[in-house]
Amino acid sequence: TIYAFLWTAAMLVLFAWKGTRLPYEGELRSLLGLEVSLVFVLLIIELSRLFVGSRGNKLEEATPLIIFVALTLIAALGNIYFLYLQIFVTRADLILNAISLVFQGLGVLLAIPTLITFRRAPKAAGQ
After folding, report:
1. Is the pLDDT of residue 121 over 80?
2. How far apart are CA 92 and CA 98, in angstroms?
3. Could you give the CA distance from residue 69 to residue 107 in angstroms, rounded to a whole number?
4. Are 53 and 64 in contact (CB under 8 A)?
5. DSSP label at residue 83
6. How many Cα neighbours within 13 Å face the side chain of 107?
7. Predicted TM-score (pTM) above 0.85
């Protein structure tokens, strides 16, 4: 969760710098606003992803972990956009989004065996 907020703050600072130093002219100016909006959308997805994954782990339920993996794929697509497809990609963009992808990949690598374990575990009476 901490990295999600640090990532958002760093990306906003980076976009403020890009907006003043790089040539966003004409239609590109509106695309700058769209890319800043995507930072907030990705923050919401990331926080939702972490909440659902934590809930699934604590309650030992498979369904939230499946949702966690799906949200991770969506968040990873957002990070890939910021890595390769945004208008101006800086070295800082590469570093910040690569770190995010590493965290997301580790989360999925840990979630899948946990998911399998929860699916195979016998259900207690009354569940």
Report:
1. yes
2. 10
3. 8
4. yes
5. I
6. 27
7. yes
